[in-house]
Design brief:
The protein has 251 residues and is an alpha/beta fold. It contains 9 helices and 7 strands. A 7-stranded parallel sheet has the order 3-2-1-4-5-6-7, sandwiched between helices. 42% of the residues are buried. The structure holds NADP nicotinamide-adenine-dinucleotide phosphate (NAP). The site of NADP nicotinamide-adenine-dinucleotide phosphate has 30 residues, from helix 1.
Length: 251
């Protein structure tokens, strides 16, 4: 199983949760030191993990990681495309910054899919879970346009592709989380119904096991978002400023 963005937050919690249940986890992210510590923890608890440092925006990095996994375990049957980054403020209209968010959040997931797909096709089975965001389901909400649109693209792409890949025995789940307390949201002041990473990991794992096409949690955050979409734009923008607080420096 390949997990991108495994060095912190939801990805790290998923690696722990899935390794505990016997999955062999390939841990992919840029911070190798964090991945090494996580792999040591998993192995100490009796699991099996492989440290795969790399940048998801670089196609060759992801391909190399998958080759390493296959050399080690002969197969890759599950992909969790989780690596992602946020976006704040003035950078929203900086084309280079927007391109980078897309190259991680959307194209990074496509890079990972491209790398695992030949192996899944060869086996005639596989499962891909794409971690989008609840904001992708709320098109009229004043969220970060760059982040929200990258996650909408991800949702449409993986949901669409899921219908085609099904015929080849490859199942796709798209996950739309609400707020989760992680490094990405550490600067945010107001996060209604926020979950801890291990709670999110449990819900994602359960959704994958149940073969859900869509996993949305917590549902009440989505309902709150739907109501917030009805508020005047002025009020929404004031809420967005309150939500964002002091933005964390982007990686
Ligand atoms: N937290 C929330 O409220 C929330 C809500 C909805 C959706 N999500 C989504 O959940 C996913 C995980 O986010 P999180 O909340 O767990 O945040 P996080 O703790 O900041 O984790 C982000 C992960 O992505 C990795 N990453 C970032 N850029 C990368 C790159 N270029 N190449 C490889 N890995 C990269 C980071 O590792 P390195 O820095 O080591 O590379 C890290 O492991 C993201 O896709 C996010 O959009 C989060």
């Amino acid at each position: 199983m390949l997990i991108t963005g495994a060095s912190s937050g939801i990805g790290e919690a998923l690696a722990v949760e899935l390794a505990r249940l016997g999955a062999r986890v390939g841990l992919f992210a840029r911070r190798a030191d964090r991945l090494k510590r996580l792999a040591a923890r998993i192995e100490h608890d009796g699991g099996s993990a492989l440290v795969l440092p790399g940048d998801v925006a670089i196609r060759q990095d992801v391909h190399r990681a998958v080759e390493q996994m296959v050399a080690h375990w002969r197969t890759v049957d599950v992909l969790i495309a989780n690596a992602g980054r946020g976006m704040h403020g003035a950078a929203e209209t900086d084309a280079e910054a927007v391109r980078h968010v897309y190259s991680v959040n959307f194209l990074g997931a496509v890079n990972a899919l491209e790398a695992v797909l030949p192996w899944m096709r060869r086996q005639g089975r596989g499962h891909v879970a794409a971690i989008s965001s609840g904001t992708a389901l709320l098109p009229r909400l004043a969220a970060s346009p760059t982040y929200a649109s990258s996650k909408m693209a991800m949702g449409r792409y993986f949901e669409g592709l899921g219908r085609e890949l099904r015929a080849e025995g490859i199942f796709v789940t798209v996950v739309y989380p609400g707020f989760v307390r992680t490094e990405m949201t550490s600067g945010h002041k107001w996060m209604p119904f926020a979950l801890e990473p291990d709670e999110a990991a449990f819900l994602i794992r359960r959704g994958i096991e149940r073969g859900r096409r869509r996993v949305i949690f917590p549902r009440r955050t989505l309902w709150l978002g739907r109501i917030a979409q009805l508020a005047p734009l002025k009020v929404q923008l004031a809420g967005r400023r309150r939500y964002s607080g002091t933005p964390r420096k982007s990686p």
